[in-house]
Amino acid sequence: MIDRGGENSADTYFDRTQYYNVVARDDFPLALDGLADIMQHALIDKDGVEHERRVVSEELRIGLDNPSTQAINGLMHLAFPDHPYGRPVIGTLASVAGLDAQGLHRFYKTFYAPNDMVLVIAGDVQPDSALALVRQDFGNSLPNPNLPAGPGPTGAWHGLREQRDMGDVRQATLDMGFPVPGYQHPDRPTLELLARILSERLVQAEEGRAQLASSISCSYLPLRVEGILSIYAQPAEITKYYALKRGVLQELVRLRATGVSEDELREARRKLRLEYLFDQENILEQAQQLGEAALYGGVRYGLEYLQDTQHVTKAQVDQAIHEYLVRDNVAIYELMPKNMARAAPFDQAEIDRLLPVLALGGHDPVDFRQVRYPGAEADAITSTTAPQATPLAQAAPAGERWQLHNGLTAVLRQEPRLPLVSVVIAVQAGSGFSTQPGLAALTAQGLYYGGWRYSFQQLRSLIDRWGGHFQLSAGQDSAHLNLTVARDDLDQALAVASDILIHPTFYDSEMAAAQRGQQAWLEGELDDASGVAFKTWRQHLYGAAHPYGQPIYGTREGVKNLSRDDMVQFHRACYRPERTVVALVGDLAPAEAHRLLDRYFGDWQPPPAPGPVEPGRTIRESGDFRVTMAKQQAYMVMGVPAVALSHPDYWPLALLSDLLGLRNFTDLVYNKSMAYQSYSTLDAFRAGGGLNLFLSTKASDWERGRQELVAKLRQVREEPVSPAELANTQQRLIGGRALSEQRTGNLAWSLAEWQQIGGDYRLYDELPQRIRQVSAADLQRIARRYIDLDHLVTVIVGPE
Question: Distance between CA 533 and CA 539 in Å, rounded?
């Protein structure tokens, strides 16, 4: 499947394991046959179990290095102490060590039975012929008459549960969870809307305070028999943690006192409808949602869910608040640095006062066993609830490119399958154009705080109303504004985009908030070993003095020293129409695209300003570089300089990177069980690039891992690629692009990047042709030209 450019994977969650193939239409029989084979004839022997044990152990160690994974596991254990939901999905190092082939085979024969499976087919297939293939591949599979029943809900409050763990982390995390009913319960639509409203309130409350949180949200996870409504928060500064915890409790108490408003409920419903629309772009997500519904209770739970949320009343949401958000039903898990100070007396006193308030007016525990659709009703499909197919993509029309009189370049690709439009605005305003690390990113984040016409509060409200698909970021070469909106919202979205890009206010108080947010993000990044490895690798590959070698988001101290004047000057130098590309993809006619861009960007005439710093030649230092972090794993990046996106050698290098990535994964993960993650990436910037291999492995195996990566690079230099491997790699790249383009936002990004950095968006359209033209001799020539084994740059992050 992978060699044909498709997607092939599997994952396990609390209630299910899913296997999926996403392929081109002509490969559907192969994809179905492959699933049928592993569902019915899996080989589970001692050698295979030992191999998987080592791979899963590597995955477990990665989780132990990840504070977010630690916090989620800690909360679930606290919320469901005597239930399977309280155990880590992947298990523990001890439990995985105790598994054997006999036990796994028994589990497979028990649960991998047709009466415990759901098969979903979504896409460009004919139902009759697809069903004939299903009968052929699965028709002889025998059901298990003794299929064990799954666990039921806990069914009662467990009282207030609190746990605080101190670890080798830089950032503090608060995870607060309320066990609630699961997938089949009539309250599921109500709880979904409640979580969205509470999340919005938590964010709004943050705007009225001195930015206590760098991240805060609320979500509802409906599992098969039970669920959890959880609040996740991290402080902007470690000293603000307890004030943040106090603020979360205050908001919960306020919500119980006031209930929700009709306006809040109306907006939550609207955003759900938009999310449903956005999800229609991806065929895999549609299949997964329908399969989960059929497995967890019946297809109506998926097909009618959106409709059910639109009928939830204010009274139902208010009742859910008082039934579920109570002190006797809350688990509070905290993950903190080992040197974390105690709470200030005022904060602790308020926390101690607020928790008991949640018990006032609480209801008796709800019956979690209620179901929305009893018995056979759960699978009763009517003409109004039957799955509606998303229109299939037609042959893509040729794109259109034009320039406004001020020099702004526009690219349009019509894609009328759904009433959506994605826009990517790429400006030559990345970190490569500044000598001050972090300035480009801070300037891009500063645009969030509004312009002449739209204030920060108005902007945030509109983004929320559009469904939240609005993002500002900065990379090495470009700053980006990405948005995907319903077609009817495009006019207003472009009005907002032009206002903040052309006329940002950069008020002192708001820029101070942006600085604190970027500093908090940088503090959390220090817990990410793989991120540290890549950042350090680029620093040595390009040279610490080169803009590409400097961290895009800077350092905490460096960001603190940036000023509003720095941002204003950088904006004047870089945010200019002649340095801007706007790519539009979706249900948009050319005449309308021209009208909108003329209206909102045609008058953009920035004042004269000195030109930005241009990225120069890279100056690198080769060798091995170690970074010490208290982690379970060693994280390794090894690579060499490469070329810019516009260079003719980009195409064979892209092919070489994909080939190396799959070779690494196949050998080091599947064959040698050394790792859970191993891949290759190719940086291709405006003024250079880099090719690298990544590996995470057991800390004690880092030297062996290093030797394996060197061997892979030596092999591709010395041995020609076989015709079969070359053809498979070419098909993977071409097919992977087709899968990515299911989402209009991905296509808009690619068109903008190729126009801005590559010089011509049409080069992206030529990818299939150019990739097919690369020969085995070309690959070996390129490998020998760019892979200098005597001058590798290698970074290893891990324990001493």
Answer: 10
- State how far the Cα of 299 lies from the Cα of 673, in Å rounded to an integer: 39
Distance of CA 647 to the CA centre of its chain: 30
pLDDT at 162: 94
Residue with tokens 């290893």: 796
The separation between the first and the last C-alpha atoms of the chain, rounded to the nearest angstrom, is: 41
Rounded Cα distance between 6 and 738, Å, is 9
Band of the pLDDT at 395, cuts 50, 70, 90?
very low
Strand pairing partners for 798?
Answer: 628
CA distance 358 to 254: 10
Give the per-residue pLDDT at 478.
96
Task: Supply the DSSP symbol for 742.
Answer: T
Higher pLDDT, 596 or 352: 596
- Strand duo 17-22 + 7-12: pairing: antiparallel
3-state secondary structure of 208: coil
Can you give the length of the chain in residues? 800
> d(Cα 100, Cα 107) in Å, to the nearest integer?
11
Phi, psi of 681 (to 5 degrees): -130, 155
CA angle 506, 508, 511 (to 5 degrees): 60
Cα 357–362–365 angle (5° rounding)?
135
Q: In 371-441, which ranges are E strands?
A: 400-403, 409-414, 420-427
At 483 the pLDDT is 95
Instruction: Detail the DSSP E strand segments found in 158-270.
Output: 161-167, 173-180, 213-222, 227-235
Q: pTM of the prediction? A: 0.89
Give the model's confidence band at 199: pLDDT under 50 very low, under 70 low, under 90 confident, else very high: very high
DSSP state of 159: -
pLDDT tens, residue by residue, 730-783 = 998 988 888 888 899 999 999 999 999 988 999 998 999 999 999 999 999 999
Alpha helices (H) along 432-576: 439-446, 456-466, 490-502, 508-525, 529-542, 556-560, 564-574
Would you call 683 helix, strand, or coil by DSSP? strand
Tokens found for residue 576:
């200019």
SS3 354: helix
How far, in Å, CA of 278 to CA of 376, rounded?
31
In degrees rounded to 5, what are phi and psi of residue 599?
-70, -45
Q: E-strand spans in 253-405?
A: 331-337, 400-403
168/166 Cα distance (integer angstroms): 7
Report strand pairing: 161-167 vs 331-337.
parallel
91: left (phi over 0), alpha (psi -120 to 50) or beta: left
